[in-house]
Design a protein that fits this description.
The chain is elongated and about 75 Å long. It is mainly alpha-helical. It has helices spanning 2-19, 52-87, 90-104, 108-119, 123-150, 153-160, 165-201, 213-220, 229-256. The protein is 72% helix and 0% strand.
Length: 263
């Protein structure tokens, strides 16, 4: 429930930013820089005299956008690969999984840095790179669940009835591994949030002129002593987001896994 509330809070912030913000997100306001939280600027202003609360609202939108696209890319590619590896003959499944292991050797952040160096730093490049780096996790968890489903009696009966492998995968395997995929998506969402924030902090992710919690940290690193709230606010938002999605994933696992007894 705590994880669900944190995730819901982030979604609400992102949705609110589409219809209302106290100030234009990147506008330089005619006020003093480095203001502490006050009645007019709820979370203060940064070194460029922009409203911090407005950037937090719009940054939530960027965070969810990056996570949704990255996890979507990973799931669309990784889930079919995992099912293919589980249902294919021994050699084909081994080829798929060994290729998966090679990709697994590259951390998401390292792969994203490589993509940023090749194609330039942008939100789109960060999303694609994080998604590609997360594919192995989806492939592994899907293959593990699919192997168990393939031994079940209803799959054996479907094969004996002459159903095609594609029909078996769609009607029997995919619905039974959906719970595992959903839990993995929640965990991968937290990883995507951290990776995007790290890339933006390094100057390789969300570009200047677009609100992002990682970009806010990047711009606040020179004022840690004089205005520590400029780093604590986006850092706290990132930490709570990651905590929320991790707790939410644990709760989904307990709810969707029939082997775990709930009291």
């Amino acid at each position: 429930m705590v994880g669900g509330l944190l995730v819901a809070a982030i979604v609400v912030l992102a949705l609110v930013s589409y219809v209302w913000t106290p100030w234009p997100p990147m506008r330089v306001l005619p006020v003093e820089a480095y203001q502490t939280p006050n009645a007019e600027h709820w979370l203060g202003t940064d070194r460029l005299r922009r409203d911090v609360f407005t950037q937090i609202l719009v940054g939530a939108r960027t965070t969810l956008y990056v996570g949704l696209v990255a996890v979507g890319v990973a799931a669309v590619v990784g889930v079919p690969l995992g099912i293919l590896a589980a249902m294919s003959p021994g050699w084909l499944g081994q080829v798929v999984m060994r290729t998966n292991d090679v990709l697994l050797a590259f951390p998401a952040l390292l792969l994203a840095i490589m993509f940023a160096a090749l194609y330039g730093g942008s939100t789109r490049v960060a999303m694609i790179a994080i998604g590609i780096a997360t594919i192995p996790a989806f492939a592994r968890i899907t293959r593990s669940g699919a192997l168990g489903v393939m031994k079940s009696e209803y799959v054996v009966a479907a094969r004996a009835a002459g159903r095609s492998p594609l029909a078996i995968a769609w009607r029997h395997v995919l619905p039974n591994v959906a719970g595992l995929v959903i839990v993995q998506a929640s965990v991968s969402f937290a990883i995507a949030i951290l990776a995007e924030a790290a890339l933006a902090y390094l100057g390789l992710g969300t570009p200047t002129g677009q609100a992002s919690w990682g970009r806010m940290l990047y711009e606040a690193q020179t004022t840690l002593r004089s205005a520590p709230h400029l780093a604590l606010i986006p850092g706290g938002a990132i930490a709570l987001s990651v905590l929320g999605f991790n707790l939410f994933g644990d709760g989904l696992r307990d709810w969707l896994d029939p082997k775990l007894e709930r009291r």
